[in-house]
Amino acid sequence: MTDAPPPGAAPGRPSDAAWDPRQYAVFAGPRGRPFADLLARVEADRPGLVVDLGCGPGELTLGLADRWPDAQVVGIDSSPQMLERARTLDTGGRVRWQQAAAEDWDATSAGPAGPAGPAGIDVLVTNATLQWVPSHLRLVPTWLAALAPGGTFALQVPANFDAPSHRLMREVAARHPRAADLAPGLDRAQAVARPETYAALLLERTPHVDVWQTTYEHVLAADPDGPHPVLEWVRGTGLRPVLGVLEGAEREIFLSDYEQALEMAYPRRDFGVLFPFTRTFAVARMPA
Ligand SMILES: C[S@@+](CC[C@H](N)C(=O)[O-])C[C@H]1O[C@@H](n2cnc3c(N)ncnc32)[C@H](O)[C@@H]1O
């Protein structure tokens, strides 16, 4: 068990393993697709201020700077490892990178203050991040209030916590000798709401709301002698609460039990491994 929380862990919570930008990047292609699908529904023409909350390693945030070259783009993340990677990628210094936890971030201070006070946010994107922010249903209204007139809020969260990848993770954790230590992190990692909850929350504040779910049938390359690709996928994200608790032999016992279960649930075939993954999207535009 690690003594100190990893850098970037929120205070007062069980420690997760630190984010590893290299592990996260292994599946950059399929992970990037939902971001593109989300942004396709954002209709901002010439936004002045664009914020990516939970920007991760920065590739996708830099895509926002490509799409809106005249905008000030801000990338916010709680992980120093992710921000370090983002700053390295941003050779042109096009994005303002800022370390903050979503829970503490003051959305009203995101842009430069002018004579009329701080500028509102024109586009606030948060992709694959709010599942790590259990209080986000309380925070979303404060973020909407910080939007400029006509501004857009766009979120995407995984909706796969009942999929075998996550169900088996919980089952293997429950029969592990450290079950009691593993449960809190895995429970916390289910903090997303149903699509209708996001829809109602947003519709109470604006009539311009679009909420949907998509199931992606990811096809993951599977080396017959290599680790199971679903294990490698979750290693970079959903397994972090487990990896933050277990070390050495305890970790090996967990990983071997879990991988065996994944082999049954997601068999390796000639074309690879099929990994269905459902995600929830919500886009809200404030009245102009
Ligand atoms: C799965 S990654 C998504 C990164 C990026 N948005 C993407 O789509 O590739 C989740 C990101 O959320 C960040 N994160 C997790 N909890 C956070 C919090 N409470 N506040 C801010 N960022 C957080 C992590 O550091 C990580 O970079």
Automatic annotation (TrEMBL):
InterPro entries, per the entry: SAM-dependent_MTases_sf, Trans_acon_MeTrfase_C
SUPFAM superfamilies: S-adenosyl-L-methionine-dependent methyltransferases
Signal peptide: none
Cited Pfam families: Methyltransf_23
Superkingdom of origin organism: Bacteria
PANTHER family to which the protein is assigned, alphabetical: TRANS-ACONITATE 2-METHYLTRANSFERASE, TRANS-ACONITATE 2-METHYLTRANSFERASE-RELATED
Full protein name: Trans-aconitate 2-methyltransferase
